[in-house]
């Protein structure tokens, strides 16, 4: 993507108080961070500002608290971040008011401070002007490095961009660059692989994609709805039969836009949704009435691989089967490995996103081989739906 917004290259941060919006909404269990990927992603922006003598003031939300709730404090996350970046990270018990002001005043050039969960104040999500002003008092500039929260028009993700000089952080820059190469100005032909449980959560996404990509592979539970709409008996499979007309409409739109829809031609079927449940691959004309489709079959996998081979760019969201349950992860895992191999051979630009998708790529051991793996969930989906993201739009205002 061309640079339509300012970045850290456009500002001298030395001595400045930099309000840096990051996404510290990481998975935690028993007070410990179980996946530090998001912390690793924001580390380069934090250390760059610190190394250049800026005072780094981290703003972030955690969870969806209703008011102040110690269980959703950012303190343990700030401690985990300190370990990742191998530098001290001070902590303030509030993101506005005296506690925040005192902690900011104590900062020396290059120091790093994390402010408490912005969502402890309901005004954050309301993008309340008074709250934005309180936050803005703490900084000289605002840097947004939280693409994964950019679909929220909240005070710290959007409001501050109207109040202070606004810049994109390095992670935001990398994300926009990778996503731009995937859908906005891609090397063609472009293929999308869309899987996951349900069509209902991805209708807007499918409708946007058929106008942007040359081929669309539909897998996972959502493919069952499309198969049902075409008259295939899908037994007891997860299928949103009331969305048959929607599925047909999407197929018509794809046809009109010259986008090839690639649906499964066979399926791996079991009698129960359980790991290692006895299973068998069937053609679509022979799905047992008491069976459940839990993965794409071997012929479908071969077609998906051929479609990947024909593509120069791949964008992927959603697993092709019930990947949490072996052996029903096979379609997802081997297709991910195939895409990774093509990427390593420099024949494919591959971009993937979505919580379960990233987990599936990690399971396949190939997340590191994709050109870009987004840690964004909702923001990635809204981007795929073609919706403007408020936290990105505000950066473009100049
Ligand atoms: N054939 C199937 N039958 C039932 N469930 C399936 C099937 N195929 C995939 N799924 C389920 O779909 C779920 C993942 O879909 P989802 O749309 O949530 O993916 P995602 O967009 O990558 O993740 P997230 O919503 O976390 O960002 C998994 O739990 C998987 O088990
Ligand atoms: O985890 C995420 O996807 C982001 O941090 C946004 O969180 P939210 O869905 O609670 O706004």
From TrEMBL:
It is an enzyme of class 2 (transferase). (2R)-3-phosphoglycerate binds at residues 38, 119, 152. Its EC number is 2.7.2.3. GO terms for biological process: gluconeogenesis; glycolytic process. One of its GO terms (molecular function) is phosphoglycerate kinase activity. Its main location: cytoplasm. ATP binds at residues 202, 324, 354-357. Gene3D superfamilies: Phosphoglycerate kinase, N-terminal domain. InterPro entries: Phosphoglycerate_kinase (IPR001576), Phosphoglycerate_kinase_CS (IPR015911), Phosphoglycerate_kinase_N (IPR015824), Phosphoglycerate_kinase_sf (IPR036043). Substrate binds at residues 23-25, 38, 61-64, 119, 152. This is Phosphoglycerate kinase. The gene is pgk.
């Amino acid at each position: 993507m061309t640079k339509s917004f300012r970045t850290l290259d456009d500002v001298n941060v030395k001595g400045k108080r930099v309000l840096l919006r990051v996404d510290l909404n990481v998975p935690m269990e028993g007070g410990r961070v179980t996946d530090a990927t998001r912390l690793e992603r924001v580390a380069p922006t934090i250390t760059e500002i610190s190394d250049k003598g800026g005072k780094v003031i981290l703003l972030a939300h955690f969870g969806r608290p209703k008011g102040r709730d110690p269980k959703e404090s950012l303190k343990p996350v700030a401690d985990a971040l300190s370990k990742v970046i191998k530098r001290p990270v001070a902590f303030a018990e509030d993101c506005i008011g005296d506690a925040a002001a005192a902690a900011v005043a104590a900062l020396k050039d290059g120091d790093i401070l994390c402010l408490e969960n912005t969502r402890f104040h309901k005004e954050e999500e309301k993008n309340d002007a008074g709250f934005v002003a309180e936050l803005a008092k703490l900084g000289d500039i605002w840097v947004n490095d939280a693409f994964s929260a950019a679909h929220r028009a909240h005070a710290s993700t959007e409001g501050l961009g109207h109040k202070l000089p606004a810049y994109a952080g390095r992670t935001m820059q990398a994300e926009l660059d990778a996503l731009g190469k995937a859908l906005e100005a891609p090397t063609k032909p472009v293929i999308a692989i869309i899987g996951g449980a349900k069509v209902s959560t991805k209708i807007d996404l499918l409708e946007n994609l058929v106008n942007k990509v040359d081929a669309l592979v539909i897998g996972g539970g959502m493919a069952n709805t499309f198969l049902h709409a075409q008259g295939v008996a899908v037994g007891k499979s997860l299928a949103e039969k009331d969305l048959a007309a929607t599925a047909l409409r999407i197929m018509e739109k794809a046809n009109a836009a010259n986008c090839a829809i690639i649906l499964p031609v066979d399926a791996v079927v079991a009698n129960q949704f359980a790991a290692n449940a006895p299973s068998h691959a069937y053609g679509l004309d022979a799905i047992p009435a008491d069976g459940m489709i839990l993965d794409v079959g071997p012929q479908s996998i071969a077609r998906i691989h051929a479609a990947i081979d024909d593509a120069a760019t791949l964008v992927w969201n959603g697993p092709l089967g019930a990947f949490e349950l072996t052996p029903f992860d096979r379609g997802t895992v081997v297709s991910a490995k195939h895409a990774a191999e093509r990427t390593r051979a420099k024949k494919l630009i591959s971009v993937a996103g979505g919580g379960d998708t990233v987990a599936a790529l990690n399971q396949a051991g190939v997340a590191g081989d994709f050109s870009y793996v987004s840690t964004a969930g909702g923001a990635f989906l809204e981007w795929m739906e073609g919706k403007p993201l408020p936290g990105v739009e505000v950066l473009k205002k100049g």
